[in-house]
């Protein structure tokens, strides 16, 4: 008998076999293995695979039974796995199963084919991972994202995000509101949509927040894409890294109905925006002809400036107001145009008025004064 060679100095005797390592891996409960003769229905499954499938190891398992466990909604796309393997192709699939106890699990399945002496697919072997926790975490993240989107939609908020240094990153809603391009908002370019009178204060508040990594909260007027200035409250907060440094900024702009906390009203002349519309509003006589401002029953008709200011107070776009009043956008354009000689019918103007009143606006027609608006 050949004598056993002495162990090398420092060598550690091998105490674990591949079976031990396989058991160690499977004991995590997240992985299982199988092998099979592809020309039969029988397959050999590890204890880990039985645990994942929720089956009794003494019951045995076949290819057909495994496929029957696939979720009905996933069966059309993933019920061909045995046929694919028998054709000699490997597979890598992710799908759901329903276990005998009616619980649902997500599986990731990788399998390879071994060819026989005749060159045809003979044996198959695969590994199955339970990836349910990953899917649950992903679904939870998507749910939080959906909730945030629903909240933003419900409040009419304009979401914005910037880098730690204030450089704009996520500003799609701001661009839609103002009509600015992504190039135009870079740096402090977004501030070009802020009313000139509000820019110094807005700039100071934003720079102070960035320098001190503190909350940001201020009101200013925004020149919207339709040419009208509207009041918004912009507020944001820094998102911090674990070391306390700022990773990014996130915030929202909320429409401010009525007067802002700086004592100015959206119905002031500059709220109508620069240009001919604002000039015409300022030039209107203080005592309009009653015949042109009332219906036959004495109900006051709204002036173009009142409608523009009311939309500014409520934050309603032309599309939104048109839908509420059941009129066309072109009709609203005529209603808000000081220079047009074509006036919509009184019942149309009344429909717009009722919609704006329901949105929280009260219209004033005081003797000796211009027609105005206020919060209801």
UniProtKB/TrEMBL annotation:
<protein>
    <recommendedName>
        <fullName>histidine kinase</fullName>
        <ecNumber>2.7.13.3</ecNumber>
    </recommendedName>
</protein>
<feature type="domain" description="HTH cro/C1-type">
    <location>
        <begin position="307"/>
        <end position="363"/>
    </location>
</feature>
<keyword id="KW-0597">Phosphoprotein</keyword>
<dbReference type="InterPro" id="IPR013655">
    <property type="entry name" value="PAS_fold_3"/>
</dbReference>
<dbReference type="InterPro" id="IPR052162">
    <property type="entry name" value="Sensor_kinase/Photoreceptor"/>
</dbReference>
<dbReference type="InterPro" id="IPR035965">
    <property type="entry name" value="PAS-like_dom_sf"/>
</dbReference>
<feature type="region of interest" description="Disordered">
    <location>
        <begin position="265"/>
        <end position="300"/>
    </location>
</feature>
<dbReference type="InterPro" id="IPR001387">
    <property type="entry name" value="Cro/C1-type_HTH"/>
</dbReference>
<keyword id="KW-0808">Transferase</keyword>
<dbReference type="InterPro" id="IPR000014">
    <property type="entry name" value="PAS"/>
</dbReference>
<dbReference type="Pfam" id="PF08447">
    <property type="entry name" value="PAS_3"/>
</dbReference>
<dbReference type="InterPro" id="IPR000700">
    <property type="entry name" value="PAS-assoc_C"/>
</dbReference>
<dbReference type="Pfam" id="PF01381">
    <property type="entry name" value="HTH_3"/>
</dbReference>
<feature type="compositionally biased region" description="Low complexity">
    <location>
        <begin position="268"/>
        <end position="296"/>
    </location>
</feature>
<feature type="domain" description="PAC">
    <location>
        <begin position="91"/>
        <end position="143"/>
    </location>
</feature>
<dbReference type="InterPro" id="IPR001610">
    <property type="entry name" value="PAC"/>
</dbReference>
<keyword id="KW-0418">Kinase</keyword>
<dbReference type="InterPro" id="IPR010982">
    <property type="entry name" value="Lambda_DNA-bd_dom_sf"/>
</dbReference>
<dbReference type="GO" id="GO:0003677">
    <property type="term" value="F:DNA binding"/>
</dbReference>
<dbReference type="GO" id="GO:0004673">
    <property type="term" value="F:protein histidine kinase activity"/>
</dbReference>
